[in-house]
Amino acid sequence: MRNILFQFLKPFFLLTSTFTITCLFIVYFQPSPSLPSSSPSSSSPLKIQQENTTTAMARSFVLWLHGLGDSGPANEPIRSFFTSPEFRNTKWLFPSASPNPVSCNNGAVMPSWFDIHEIPISATSPKDDSGVLKAVQKVHAIIDREVAAGTNSENIFICGFSQGGALTLASVLLYPKTLGGGAVFSGWVPFGSSVVERFSPSAKKTPILWSHGLADGTVLFEAGQAGPPFLEQNGISCEFKAYPGLGHSISNDELQSLESWIKTKPRSSS
Question: What is the maximal distance between C-alpha atoms in the chain?
Answer without folding.
Answer: 78
